[in-house]
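Query structure, 176 tokens:
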């Protein structure tokens, strides 16, 4: 018996319409089609039983989005019994020139000295702090003064610095 295969557009539609996150991203207009195509490529290849080019999946995603944005596409989703609410007001921002500083096994009181030094010089600093019991990770703007402070701290406290990063922030409005 021969296994039935699916076309790339049909496989793409099935995968995207069965995943609320993917569907919300494409309907909200915040999805990067190439990144999404790379993410779903293994699943598309399983359904089509063949190797598939990323560009082909991107085109399938674009056509699906165009269809969904028409009234006919919305009806197609309802017929398929995919009933996901569309979240309006989703915003995305991209911040470049970020650096990631990874402090391993650093006590928080030692780290607070570094933070005091940084915030003493920069009051409007854009940063995120992630802490576990074995690690403190600081994601912050790559400003020259801050970079100098962090470089000194990284030598003193054995930190690893990754620079040239970007941060994407997605803001979803409250549903309540």
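Result returned for the query:
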């Amino acid at each position: 018996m021969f296994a039935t295969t699916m076309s790339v557009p049909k496989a793409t539609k099935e995968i995207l319409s069965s995943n609320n996150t993917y569907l919300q991203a494409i309907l909200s207009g915040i999805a990067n089609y190439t990144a999404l195509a790379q993410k779903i490529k293994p699943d598309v290849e399983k359904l089509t039983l063949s190797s598939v080019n990323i560009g082909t999946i991107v085109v399938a995603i674009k056509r699906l989005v165009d269809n969904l944005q028409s009234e006919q596409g919305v009806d197609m989703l309802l017929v398929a019994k995919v009933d996901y609410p569309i979240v309006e007001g989703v915003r995305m921002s991209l911040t470049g020139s970020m650096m990631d500083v990874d402090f391993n096994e650093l006590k928080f009181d030692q780290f607070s000295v570094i933070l005091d030094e940084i915030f003493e010089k920069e009051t409007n600093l854009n940063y995120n702090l992630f802490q576990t019991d074995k690690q403190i990770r600081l994601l912050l703007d790559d400003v020259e003064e801050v970079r100098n402070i962090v470089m000194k701290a990284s030598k003193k406290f054995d930190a690893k610095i990754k620079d040239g990063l970007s941060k994407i922030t997605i803001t979803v409005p409250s549903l309540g």
